[in-house]
Write a structure and sequence with these properties.
- 80% of the residues lie in helices and 0% in strands.
- It is mostly helical.
- About 5% of the residues have low confidence.
């Protein structure tokens, strides 16, 4: 690159820095609505059970968040408007037990997309320096890198959901047996749930802890378990929650229901393990056929071939 190109690049970076700094200074000088209105509303008498207005505490922010936060927020809104599916993302966030909003996930998608864009742009720059790439192909590759980063973050969320549901399915038989033993010993559903949640750790224990917290705040047991059935993505846990809700409402024996469901889950896990082993058996034959067998044949016939070559004049 010539000296003029370097000057243009440095000038563009300096201009971008000045624009970002000036826009942030203007944003900092603006007062929020709460800071302007709350001083006149603190002494207003309250009516009924309304709570007094309080200013939201300012969270500490780092310099990159302060500088690039507005840009990332607007880019996340644009990505969400293009892709859509906010309800699906919200449901997957709930199933993954992630304390994030759809907008925060959109910001992460933009960050992953920018990382992919940077990697593709760096590769395109190396190809351009070698004289093997044009401007159009480099731009298209960079755009594909950005799209790939956004899609990769969405797929990563789906994989997190699947991993958590797999852990929940592995924990379910043990917790169901513990609940059935506690109920059979004479404890009520809430007391049994409290005992199991206090002595277990895991993703399913966290879900049951949320159910217990809802019950302690006044939500009926059947309604809390119905919410668990609607929230979870594991059909076995949904059937378990519905069975507990029906047993509590109608007074059916809860211990027998829990014991039967635990047995069904163990049987389903055993059947899935057998099916997985049957599928893996075919893949286990690949190294035997393409690696071990040719080596065995070679060791068997190679001495004979050498002997024939030595005996034949």
């Amino acid at each position: 690159m010539s000296l003029a190109w370097w000057g243009a690049v440095l000038g563009g970076l300096a201009a971008a820095g000045l624009v970002l700094s000036s826009s942030r200074v203007v944003a900092l000088r603006k007062q929020t609505l709460s800071s302007r209105v709350l001083p006149y509303l603190r002494d207003v008498p309250r009516r009924g059970g309304t709570q007094p207005l309080r200013a939201m505490p300012a969270r500490p922010r780092s310099a990159p968040v302060v500088v690039f936060g507005p840009f990332l927020a607007s880019a996340a809104a644009a990505v969400e408007a293009v892709l859509g599916g906010a309800s699906s993302v919200r449901r997957r966030l709930d199933r993954a037990a992630m304390d994030k909003t759809v907008h925060e996930l959109g910001i992460e998608q933009v960050v992953w997309g920018l990382v992919g864009f940077s990697l593709a742009a760096a590769y395109s720059l190396l190809r351009a320096l070698g004289g093997g790439a044009g401007l159009g192909s480099s731009f298209l590759l960079s755009c594909l890198g950005f799209v790939g980063g956004v899609v990769l973050r969405d797929n990563h969320l789906s994989s997190q959901v699947k991993q958590r549901e797999r852990r929940i399915l592995a924990e379910f038989p043990t917790l169901a047996e513990l609940l059935s033993l506690a109920v059979a010993a004479g404890e009520g559903p809430v007391a049994a749930l409290d005992r199991v949640c206090a002595r277990s750790r895991g993703d399913l224990s966290e879900e049951l802890g949320r159910v217990l917290a809802s019950v302690r705040t006044g939500v009926p047991v059947a309604v809390a378990f119905d919410a668990l059935a609607a929230r979870t993505g594991v059909p076995v846990v949904a059937r378990f929650a519905q069975g507990v809700a029906v047993a509590v409402e109608r007074g059916t024996p809860l211990a027998d229901v829990l014991h039967a469901q635990a047995g069904d889950v163990r049987e389903a896990s055993r059947r899935e393990l057998i099916e997985t082993a049957a599928r893996k058996e075919v893949f286990m034959m690949v190294p035997v056929v393409f690696l071990v067998l040719p080596v065995t044949v070679l060791f068997a016939f190679f001495p004979g071939v050498i002997g024939l070559s030595l005996t034949i004049p």
